[in-house]
Input
Amino acid sequence: MNRRLAFVLHDLTPWEGHSRSTLEIARRLSRDVGVDLYSFTFFDAGLGQPERAAGWGDARWFHIRPDIRKPFPLRASLFYLHTALLTGALPGWSRERRPLIHATGACTLISDVVQVQFLHAAWKAARAKHPHLAFPGSTAKAALRRLYHRGVSEFDIATEKLAYTKTKTYIAIAEVVKRELQEYYGIHDNVHVIHHGVDPVHFKPADNAAAVRVLRSELDLPHDKIIIAFVGALERKGLGAAIEAWAKLSPGSRAKAVLLAVGGGQTGAFQEQARRAGVADSVIFKGHTKDIRKVYQASDAFLLPTLYEPFGMVITEAMACGLPPIVTKLAGASELISDGTDGLLLGDPADTSAIAACLTRVIENEDERKNLKREARRTAERYTWDHAAKKYAGVLYPLLGI
Output
């Protein structure tokens, strides 16, 4: 009898990139092998989306309890203990009788395969290079928020050092992550690069101009502007640089467009930045949304001058919806983009003049924008979750004895 495959992660939902990618792979592999899912929460990747049939095979969910949300170090510590007990992965227990444990990051200290989607040591180094962009705001509340996140970051780095040993198999979601594993933890062997996939059936352009108008009405967006979408964690994904660049646009270009910021973070600090820069009337803030597809389909281009981004599923999802991406080469997804063909690539995320130049290019050149949109969609269609799952099978099945 073949060993089962266990996917371990705090939360398994379709609303966050790292958990959605785990669900997409687990769902597909469960059609071939027995899959166990260990998490605090579980929602099917196709939940509420009829065109994405669940399609689970031999799968079981193990509900980890209690789910204490904060403080995060306590929640994480409880997860380490409970998953080790439930999977039979404590030291000395028979490896042959327990499942092959696939962990997303350092969410559990005992694992066989680690999918590395984020390295906190690398994010710490990126923050140090651009502190004014990573930590905006000068209020006492902002200072306390920075202090808390720095503490959590040090906890995460400590657990990475414990979890990332040289005896395991690693799946890096981009070449840049593979290099970071070598740089920060000295891991050179058994590292396989498998890029995230995208669902081009779900993430697709709006059917027509009328559908775009309906979406813009639903989202309370202007109908007569070019909409540049920014999606993700506001600080890390570079909204500070985006606003600085927006202020450098010519008045004529800025009058034609709006910057739409969707995501969580210190919204008040960024709103104040936009006011100080004199561009508050052309920057729209929306909170986190579970249906990000509507945002893409209502927009014209995608901007992500990210400070640190191991991959960036928002990039390929936006491309699948026909949005030309303007992203830094720091993002792992940039490895799939040909500069000037299906997107525009940036070097330094702090080079706001270069960001402004790219924005001007997509705002002022309608023909180029249309060409970029078409080619962005074509590129995304090549990198499906089925494609990624086949690569995962090539790594995991031999470890399962298949």
